[in-house]
Amino acid sequence: MARSRWFRRVGIALAVLVAAFIITAALAAALLPPRIAGWIRPRVITVLSRQLDSEVELGELTITLGAQVRISGGPLVVRHQGRRDVAPLLRIARFEGTTTLRQLLRAPRRVDDITLTGFEVAIPPSRAPGQPRFPRRDGRPRDRIPE
Known about the structure:
With 147 residues, the protein is α+β, with helices and mostly antiparallel strands.
């Protein structure tokens, strides 16, 4: 008799722990993505600005957690060195990508699938004859690509 009460109590305790874990996981899945997107958005803008030596404008960034991590957003506009006298270097009306959390936490990061909508590329004219099309901000010459 005492043994069956012990098993019953252990079973109830395990059921309560499992229910608490499920509730915590559901709350985390509902509450974390907006915070993660708010934290990642400025970092994405900073990294793209540095890597592309450009001014980057990112409208919306949404992250959905589940079996796969879904990242979507737009519009994304890249202006080389902030030039507004020519069309943006890149313009993406909407983007969407899927990956796993494991792939996002590894180095290098990998995305399984990317869909771009309204992708436009514009190559700006040179500022003056004989000058490079994409000069560096610090004035140093760019390395030439070997032929």
